[in-house]
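Section 5: illustrative case.
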């Protein structure tokens, strides 16, 4: 596995993108709305990874709930795997708990989330990028 991206919850993707582009000298940014998760994402490309800025698009979005209870900030780290279903089964055998099943994510990925209680308070996403 490797780190795929770091996700940050923000109130306004447009405002956050301006600040991140300036601070980090980032030129390439992609935008995507993921209706199933109720989130608009700005993907900031770094040399070896990405930062994803996430803004809720509706009140029942998990990101809206996060922002209401915790405010803006680090939401999760994403780990890329070549076999998401196999990793989920292996991890379940180790007692790792998940938040839902494997499902579609941004840019055609497959994703699932590891419950923060399984990783000492850190929400982690497993993701698989099909070729």
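Designed sequence:
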């Amino acid at each position: 596995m490797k780190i795929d991206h770091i996700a940050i919850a923000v109130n306004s993707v447009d405002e956050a993108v301006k600040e991140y582009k300036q601070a980090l000298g980032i030129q390439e940014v992609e935008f995507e709305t993921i209706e199933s998760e109720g989130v608009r994402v700005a993907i900031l490309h770094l040399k070896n990874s990405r930062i994803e800025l996430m803004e809720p698009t509706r009140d029942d979005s998990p990101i809206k709930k996060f922002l209401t209870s915790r405010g803006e900030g680090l939401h999760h780290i994403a780990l890329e795997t070549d076999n998401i279903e196999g990793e989920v089964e292996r991890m379940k055998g180790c007692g790792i708990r998940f938040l839902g099943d494997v499902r579609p994510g941004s840019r055609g990925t497959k994703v699932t989330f590891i419950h923060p209680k399984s990783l000492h308070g850190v929400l982690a996403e497993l993701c698989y990028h099909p070729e």
